[in-house]
Design brief:
heterodimer; A: 344 residues; mainly alpha; 14 helices; 2 strands; 3% strand; B: 512 residues; alpha/beta; Rossmann fold; 6-stranded mixed β-sheet; 17 helices; 20 strands
């Protein structure tokens, strides 16, 4: 098929097909932009600084765990344990960082230093991930099954230990003086420190994905596990590490969420993983495996948040928002698959 | 323009069944087919040849309606046809036996044959197993296929699964049957059986289109040969008037006097690797012992299922070893996993490139450097993009890989170039022992020659090669010695410079 059509004019039909391809390839962005324009005409406050900073702040709170899950998706897997791991690690952060003088403090012992708690919850998350990864890599179970099981176990463990108690009255040195501390203001809207933390986590993830052998191996395993194995890639270790890294991001998210919401509750983290998976898919992390970019995940989380906030602005009820989120995921997946189908 | 029915004869020739006239197909930037014509007569075998990318598959896809042709006409027995799906083609009597079989492997043979049109029990909405079984048995009887219709597909070798595919085509009363590289995974005896079936179909008046790279086969089985190059029709000639060199000249568009590069005839000494009593834990490999010299190309011949691949997998640690020992340069080694084998200086090019060799959605660069990332470090644990690019560049030059960019996705390269990328991947790990399993499978003639050159060059540089292949001519053409496997055991060893195909076949049948 080497015969190039040097100088031959492209037919009108071909040009139309190309235009159609372009539209379909970028359909998700186009649809979302159209939605933004519509919301903006209805509610002019939507694209004001305060609203945009709010969207970015919420994006920052969800981004790290989406990046973690993206790794699992690149391995042609998924991770359903994310939300419950966030719930568990938020609980752990909260009990160790509760105000000392509060009546009915969950733990009798003294508060631990902040960095130690952060490291501990990331280690707990990493441990959950290690179990997930170990089962996936060694027992050849599908990650869907493994993480379905582990999230149940985690939730059960959490309920047993906590007695479903809400843990509030958190130490101000943890919340308003650290995680939700105002770093600076844009107009009258404050930018909190966890936005910067998320930016750092994202930068670290970018380096891990693009500049380390582990990152390259992750993409190779996701795109053809057997080829990676015979090429000398330690597939088992790669899979375990991907899930551990993901677990660590859930631990981090739990730490931030407890501080952000000011309490750990039984429903904290519920269904977070589904939003994160949806964001990854919108951002072009394909379930085919081996495909995904950090920038795509950022965009995906941002667009998801844009839609959710837009719905709130329009006064659309939470019930309808679910329907719209569902439709967005379907359309995004269909468009994603289209790219990998052979064109006829 | 030719019109009319199958009764029209061209000067007493057989009636024309299928007539493809001036078919063109354009993809963005490429004219894949440029006014190609071809005529298939009833009761003949018409070979379609050309290098990979010459347009053979595109032409067949236009015939079956998988691609919509841009111009031209296709007539079946005088009536213009324009299939929209493979099923419509089947119903009209045009069938294809694919190179890569698309079958429901977890289901039985007869389920596969009647898939999508299960016979009903009278007017009830139930499938009649009895009728299915009887119909399948009668077709198998006609074609002399000895397979139990109730066998589960995945438990049968590729050759038998292919027979099932042929039986399916026959069950549709097909007039035109296309065979796409049918022998690429068959042994000589299985090829003979296939040829008997093809001749039987031909004698019943079917028109056969036979796509293959293998010249010997083409010259044996076909009546007419059409050759394509770069999306264009080059020639159609009676097979009796063609020679191998003539076909190659027409396919490649230049003179190619030899199929193999000059043999490497240095005197070899000193064993690099000694294998003793190798047996597989799960495979049927039993008690294989041999010595590999430095700079030697050692062939591994044998029928399908004789243990060629199993031997290489055993050496490389990708299949579990039951017993036996390996000694490399006087040191005992184990190769319990591919990682350990690589650390011991082994490299392996696997048989099924698409399934276990390449990462097709990743780029040339990523595919090239996946095994040598350790050598691509920059600062600390971080990879250096510059080193990665340099290594890829080296590999592209050394292996003469034709790719527009380092960041081209591997799936857009030809089979030959994909194979060269894998060679480059391993060359970068600087191995001492290369294990090659069917290194030229799915690679076109010109690229095959280049791969032979690469192998001989590696041996000249002091690397040792163990090369398993189902193509005896290539083993005889470039190896020093050939081990012949049979039924999982080593049946014998021959000197490639003096041995004949008959000698190898005799050994291959020893324990089969």
């Amino acid at each position: 098929m080497a015969a190039a059509n040097n100088g031959s004019r492209t037919s009108t039909r071909e040009r139309w097909t190309r235009a159609g391809d372009f539209l379909l390839d970028h359909a998700m962005i186009i649809i979302i932009l159209a939605m933004v324009v519509y919301i903006q005409t209805q509610r002019p406050a939507f694209l004001k600084t305060a609203s945009i900073v709010n969207i970015i702040t919420l994006t920052a709170s969800r981004l790290p765990m989406a990046l973690g899950i993206a790794g699992a998706i690149i391995l042609t897997g998924t991770d359903l344990s994310a939300g419950r791991t966030v719930g568990l690690t938020a609980f752990i952060s909260a009990i160790f960082l509760q105000k000392l003088d509060v009546a009915g403090r969950f733990l009798q012992s003294a508060a631990l230093p902040l960095p130690m708690v952060l490291l501990m919850v990331m280690a707990v998350g990493g441990l959950v991930g290690a179990v997930n990864g170990f089962c996936v890599a060694n027992f050849k179970l599908h990650p869907f099954i493994v993480t379905l099981a582990t999230q149940l176990i985690i939730y059960g463990a959490y309920l047993t230990v906590s007695g479903a108690k809400q843990i509030s009255s958190l130490d101000a040195r943890y919340t308003t003086e650290f995680v939700t501390r105002t770093l600076f203001r844009i107009g009258t809207t404050s930018v909190m420190s966890y936005v910067v933390f998320s930016a750092i986590v994202t930068a670290v993830m970018w380096v891990v994905w693009n500049k380390t052998a582990f990152g390259k191996n992750m993409f190779a395993v996701g795109s053809n596990e057997e080829a990676a194995r015979v090429s000398g890639v330690n597939v088992t270790m790669t899979v375990i590490c991907v899930f551990m890294l993901a677990g660590a991001t859930y631990g981090y998210t739990g730490f931030v969420e407890a501080a952000r919401l000011g309490a750990s509750t039984g429903t904290l983290g519920l269904n977070y993983e589904l939003d994160a998976i949806a964001a990854c898919v919108i951002g072009g992390v394909s379930f085919i495996g081996g495909i995904g970019k950090i920038s795509g995940v950022i965009l995906g989380v941002f667009l998801m948040q844009l839609i959710i906030n837009g719905m709130t602005f329009l006064g659309i009820s939470g019930n309808t928002t679910y329907i719209i989120k569902g439709l967005v995921i379907l359309v995004a997946c269909a468009i994603d698959m289209r790219k990998y189908l052979s064109k006829k | 323009m030719w019109k009319g029915g199958a009764r029209v004869r061209e000067d007493g020739d057989a009636p024309v069944l299928l007539s493809i006239e001036n078919v063109s197909k354009r993809f963005p930037g490429v004219k894949a087919l440029d006014r190609v014509s071809m005529t298939v007569k009833a009761g003949t075998v018409h070979a379609l040849m050309g290098e990979n990318g010459a347009g053979k598959s595109t032409l067949m896809k236009c015939l079956f309606g998988i691609y919509a042709k841009d111009e031209g006409h296709i007539y079946l027995e005088g009536n213009e046809i324009r299939f929209r799906s493979a099923r419509e083609a089947l119903d009209s009597g045009v069938a294809m036996v694919h190179q890569e079989l698309n079958q429901a492997l977890k289901r039985s043979v007869m389920d596969n044959i009647w898939l999508g049109r299960y016979p009903r029990m009278r007017n009830l909405p139930f499938v009649s197993e009895r009728k299915m079984l009887a119909d399948t048995a009668s077709i198998f009887g006609e074609l002399d296929i000895r397979v139990n219709p109730k066998t589960i597909m995945s438990s049968m070798p590729v050759s038998q699964r292919q027979m099932v595919e042929i039986a399916k085509a026959v069950s549709f009363h097909s007039k035109v049957i296309v065979f796409d590289e049918p022998t690429s995974s068959l042994t000589e005896t299985e090829v003979e059986h296939l040829f008997r079936i093809i001749r039987a179909l031909r004698d019943r008046g079917c028109g056969i289109i036979y796509i293959s790279h293998k010249m010997e086969e083409i010259l044996r089985i076909s009546d007419e040969v059409t050759i394509m190059r770069d999306g264009q029709w080059v020639a159609t000639k009676p097979a009796a008037e063609l020679t191998m060199n003539e076909i190659i000249r027409l396919m490649v568009g230049r003179e190619m006097s030899n199929r193999f590069p000059p043999r490497d005839s240095r005197a070899l000494e000193g064993a690099v690797l000694e294998a003793e009593n190798l047996s597989g834990r799960y495979s049927h490999l039993r008690g294989v012992s041999f010595k590999l010299k430095k700079g030697e190309i050692l062939g591994v011949a044998g029928l399908d299922g004789s243990g060629r691949t199993e031997l290489l997998e055993n050496l490389f640690g990708s299949a579990a070893r039951g017993s036996g020992s390996l000694t490399k340069s006087g040191r005992r080694i184990h190769n319990r996993s591919p990682r350990e084998a690589i650390a011991n200086g082994f490299a392996m090019v696997t048989e099924e490139r698409r399934a276990t060799g390449i990462m097709d959605i990743l780029t040339v660069r990523e595919n090239t450097t996946i095994s040598c990332l350790r050598k691509c470090r920059g600062i600390g644990p971080f990879l250096s993009s510059r080193k990665i690019a340099q290594k890829t560049e080296w590999s592209i030059n050394a292996m003469r890989i034709k790719t527009p960019k380092q960041t081209t996705k591997l799936r857009s390269l030809s089979g030959g170039n994909q194979q060269k990328v894998i060679f480059g991947r391993w060359a970068l790990t600087e191995p001492e022992i290369f294990l090659l399993d069917e290194p030229t499978r799915g690679v076109d003639v010109g690229a095959k020659y280049e791969i032979y050159q690469l192998i001989i060059q590696m041996a000249r540089e002091g690397k040792s090669v163990v090369m398993a292949s189902s193509e005896m001519p290539e083993l005889l053409g470039i190896c020093h010695r050939i081990l012949v496997m049979s039924g999982g055991r080593l049946a014998g060893e021959v000197d490639a410079g003096r041995a004949t195909q008959e000698e190898i076949m005799t050994l291959a049948a020893k324990y089969a």
